[in-house]
Design a protein that fits this description.
21% strand, binds adenosine monophosphate, alpha+beta, 118 residues
Length: 118
């Protein structure tokens, strides 16, 4: 069982922001911004590559509710899903990183290894 499934099953503790029967939002253990929350479906889905429109459609208002609860819906935030090896996905259970609470800059690609796609 993956680590996020264990969090869903309460086998591993987490700092929960919001939870319903389908989704869970909890604080990232290693925050990269003043607000750094992870939003996951309770059902195991490997990554954004595998999510279907029905699940995404239900997840969207849940994420909106979380941003309101966190007080970042108007100040702004960043929503990221890392996918696969090049995306830097470490936990193979779909999750959206919700980052906010500060002005976020877009400068962390400088150390990326380029690939000759073009
Ligand atoms: P990613 O690299 O996109 O797969 O992100 C995985 C995220 O999960 C990282 O930001 C980790 O800090 C976070 N993480 C790993 N284990 C835990 C945990 N037990 N509770 C909360 N966040 C976690």
């Amino acid at each position: 069982m993956c680590i996020f499934c264990k969090i869903v099953n309460k086998e591993i503790p987490s700092n929960v922001v919001l939870e319903n029967s389908d989704f869970m939002a909890f604080h990232d253990i290693n925050p990269k911004a003043p607000v750094h929350v992870l939003v996951i479906p309770k059902t195991h889905v490997d990554s954004f590559n595998e999510i279907n429109g029905d699940l995404m459609g239900k997840m969207t208002p849940f994420i909106h509710e979380v941003t309101t609860l966190l007080g970042i819906n108007e100040s702004g935030y960043r929503l990221i899903s890392n996918i696969g090896e090049d995306g830097g996905q470490e936990v193979k259970h779909l999750h959206f990183h919700l980052l906010g609470g500060a002005k976020l800059y877009w400068g962390h690609f400088a150390d990326a290894d380029s690939k000759d796609f073009f």
